[in-house]
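Lab channel / #folding
Pinned by the channel admin:
"Please post every new chain as: sequence first, then the structure tokens as a reply. Keep commentary short and put observations after the output so the thread stays searchable."

First post following the new format, from NK:
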Amino acid sequence: MKPALFRVLLLVLSAAFSISLMECALRLQTYGGITPLAGEHVLRMPHETRGWTLRPGDKAHQRNLDFDVTVEINEQGLRDRPHAYDKPAGTRRIVVLGDSFMEAYQVALEESLPHRLQESLADRDVEVINLGVGGYGTAQELRALREEGLLYAPDLVVLAFFTGNDIQNNSRSLQIDTFGAEDPKVWGRPYARAADASAPLSWTEPDAARMRAAAEKAERKRASWLRRAWKLVEPTVLANRVQQLFARAAARAGAPPADPRAHFGWPFLEHFESPVWDDAWLVTQRLILELRDVSRAADADFVLLIVPAKLQVEADFRELARGQYPGVAFDENRINRALESFASQHDIPLYDPTAALVARSEQGERVYYQIEDHHWNALGHEIVTAGLVDMLEREGLLAR
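Reply from TO:
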């Protein structure tokens, strides 16, 4: 072998060895092992009535440019500690419903709102069961309560309502506008319809067969020997760290979504009216009332928790949005006022943590992730949990 070629080969091998050592060290530091776990969202499995749910007893490493978290699912299919269905004598149970903010795969389990709520109330013999699943809308949360939540005999049901997309999730038309008709987030979820706020709900079921076929295809891809071999040697954690260095500088330079009417719509735009959004808001109200009635029929109190979008809390993010859409009239808290009016009209206790989050943000603290994820970080979960506990105490909802 020629000396020059030998030196090049030696340099390549040395670089590969150094990268391998750094990757192994980062894997050990990040999730305690050399073999990488699967990536974000692989813990979901098809469900006949809800579209998808979490796979019981499984775990995966959830990673993007903002966080690295190992997520474990208990035997009931919940991102939570184990819970028996039978309620211990003298225990008051709280069931939490919500989407990815409550599943909280962006933070360690101990940092999530449901777990913090449990720890805050442990000395009062309160047990918190977390039914949060990423991507859920109100229709799926209603079915989760009926099919799973009531099995725990709750004394209180907390619905965490995300202002950013929960109304869109309840409308097939708005989901198509956002994702396109062929996206699984469109045809893979159930939709409810209602003629008015007191009319019975009618349903469009998820395409369960198509969901199963898509899941089987994804599993075959993950299980292939070529994919497994690549995952073993792929410098995923190291590459993630490098991406973070560059992404932080460019986080605010991304292209805006194509249509602010679909992305923000009625909840965040001033003087915005649309029959499609009106229908979505109507069925959302009807679903919340059904959740309230199902809870009360099971002798459980019902509370509405507003989960504000990052746009409503962080001033610099809000200014970025306004700059991306010059001439668009924003009213970032329109949805909050509507929810407060609705809750008051229907005797539903409500907690809105927006002001508390804004106050901490104005002090220079970050309560949401900053690069590609817009969920609460650990501090955000901490702030909202403390406020929720105070509200439950004031309303007398922690008494046995």
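NK: The CA atoms of residues 311 and 321 lie 8 Å apart.
TO: also worth noting, The first strand starts at residue 44 and ends at 47.
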